Amino acid sequence: xxxxxxxxxxxxxxxxxxxxxxxxxxxxxxxxxxxxxxxxxxxxxxxxxxxxxxxxxxxxxxxxxxxxxxxxxxxxxxxxxxxxxxxxxxxxxxxxxxxxxxxxxxxxxxxxxxxxxxxx
Length: 120
Fold this sequence. Notes:
Elements: E1 2-6, E2 11-15, E3 21-26, E4 39-42, E5 45-52, E6 57-66, E7 69-73, H1 82-85, E8 97-99, H2 101-110, E9 116-119
Parallel strand pairs: 1-9, 7-8
Antiparallel strand pairs: 1-2, 2-3, 4-9, 5-6, 6-7
């Protein structure tokens, strides 16, 4: 499997070895001033949740693909924020790739370390 993120379409596509879509989800990439980096990266780490005191937000089911950039659920501040979930499909993050809780868990459960991630 490998992952392709389309910033113009705000989608995450999980593709098999023949480039056939296994899963496709809506996402939210980095908003203006906090753009998501483009290029080819590799999944390197994961965790069930995090909270960043600096920005006062956290999320569930994170999967790192580059430095501090992650795939993760819509943000939470104590609990999931419906307003943030409503933004899926448009840039809204601090640079990470946000997906729904269900889709974040799917990535967490099914995408191993070493998986190629292309963001364009």
